[in-house]
Amino acid sequence: MTSANSPEDHAGRPGDVPAGRPAALDRLDVLTGRWEMEASFDAGRLGPGTPATTERGGLTTFEWLEGRYFLIQRFAADIPGPPSGIAIIGPGGLPGTLEQHYYDSRGVARVYQASLDNGVWRLWREAPGFWQRYSGVVSEDGSVIAGAWEASADGRDWRRDFGLTYIKVT
Q1: Are 8 and 31 in contact (CB under 8 A)?
Q2: 15 domain-assigned
Q3: pTM recorded for the entire structure
Q4: pLDDT tens digits, one per residue of 113-158
Q5: Which of 20, 27, 121, 143 sits at 20 to 30 Å (Cα–Cα) from 136?
Q6: Which percentage of the chain shows pLDDT scores above 70?
Q7: Total domain count for the chain?
Q8: For residue 17, is it within any domain?
Q9: CATH number for the domain that contains residue 31
Q10: What DSSP string describes 122-170?
Q11: Is the confidence at residue 48, as pLDDT, over 70?
């Protein structure tokens, strides 16, 4: 039973959760769960003369924060090099938009714009000297997200940074 002083309203939601949750957040449900990560690097990307390589290792989890306004992503790699971290995906500054707030073990903090439409998950940021974008295609059965990160110094000339595929575990 709730009362006027209860932290929960009659719908069972915490009292501080507004009723008007953006519908765009529902599209993020496909991300929830545990995912194994696979990164691929082109020849020379990890240093002069290095061969192309693909490494599978580490996990990413996505889970909703209570209220389902923010999706929490935690990631940790089992291989040397990539950082571990956390990201929070939720409503952006404009109606209908999404943002990802990213923090990693190197002390890096970034804000990305985000979208997940028609089976394509996108993240992007426009920062002087270091623009980035990710595009990943979600398989029809929702078990794989195959994508890649790209980088640019000026937002015009883009290069593949590395491939990043997620394989759903649970």
Answers
A1: no
A2: no
A3: 0.85
A4: 999 999 999 999 999 999 999 999 999 999 999 999 999 999 999 9
A5: 20
A6: 89
A7: 1
A8: no
A9: 2.40.128.20
A10: EEEE--TT-EEEEEEEEPTTSSEEEEEEEEESSSSSEEEEEEEEEEE--
A11: yes
